[in-house]
Each structure stands twice: as C-alpha cells, then as structure tokens.
Design goal:
- Helices cover 62% and strands 5% of the residues.
- By secondary structure, the protein is mainly alpha-helical.
- It has a two-stranded antiparallel sheet.
- A hairpin with a 6-residue loop joins strand 1 and strand 2.
- Helix 2 runs antiparallel to helix 3, helix 2 packs across helix 4 and helix 4 runs antiparallel to helix 5.
- The longest helix has 29 residues.
- It is flat.
- The protein starts with a strand and ends with a helix.
Amino acid sequence: MVDEKDNAGGGIISIEESSFENSNDAFSWTAVTVLQSLALFCVAGVAEVVGGWLVWVAIRGTNGKIKPWWFALLGSLMLVAYGFIPLLQPTDNFGRIYAAYGGFFIVLSFLFGWALDGDRPDMGDVVGGLISLVGVCLICFGRDDPTVYETVPTLFEMEVCIMMMRWPW
C-alpha cells in the first residue's frame, strides 16, 4: 500500500498496488501449449488466406473469371473470424503472437496459392518460407533458453547457402 499526501485538501490518499501479475511472467511452454499455439496459427492462417482469396476472386477474379458477390461477403466474414482467433493463444503477448503468425501466413499463402490458383512455389519461396518458420520458432519458443540463439545462422551464412543453391552444379 502506498500513502501519498493530497495537495488540495491535505488529507491522505491510500492507493493499493495492483495485485495483477503479468501473465507472461508466469507462463511457460509445455507440449500441450506448443501444439495449441501451432494449431491456432494454422487455423488463423487458413481463415485469413482463404478469406482474402474469396474477396480477391469476387473483386479481381482468377483465371479470367470473377466469382459471385457472396464470395466477397463470405471472405469478409472469414477475415473477421480471423481477427478473433489469435485471442485463443495461450500467451498474452500481442506483438510476439502477431509477429510469429506472419511466418505462418507466408507459408500458408504459398500453399494456398498453389492449391487454389496453381501458382507453384519456386525454390526462393520454399527457402524464404522455411526461414520464416525458423523465425517463428525463435520468436515463440526461444525465449527461455539463451543458447537457442547460438544456433541461429548469421546473415553471411544464410547468404552463402543461397549462393550455393543458385550455383550451376
């Protein structure tokens, strides 16, 4: 409890400290929460990518065909649902959850683009998607163990790998 003088009336104001604890301080990943988080990332990704695709094909079309207006409505509803799905994540860190979700969005966008429009990912897409998933794992699960950062390749090492993949063997 903190006591302070009230300058206006000379009385004492009693301010109790909040008993609210930051839930991230007590949070730790378990096998169940990791699986829950990964499943929610996938569900959110499907809702966003498919919802966005439905709006896209209703407005811009695909393969020269524009879909009916209700595709846009259904897609919009899926995008609204997507906005609520991350609230089910087991941790309360908004920035970290949305940043990590970005990696899933990248990979799911490539996969759904391939499935829905026939746009097959190339080697750069695959490598970029894998790098984004490594980033997801570091963002979400690499917080408690500082040694996890010792295994992250440097930018130079990643550039060498990319150059080797492009080398005309």
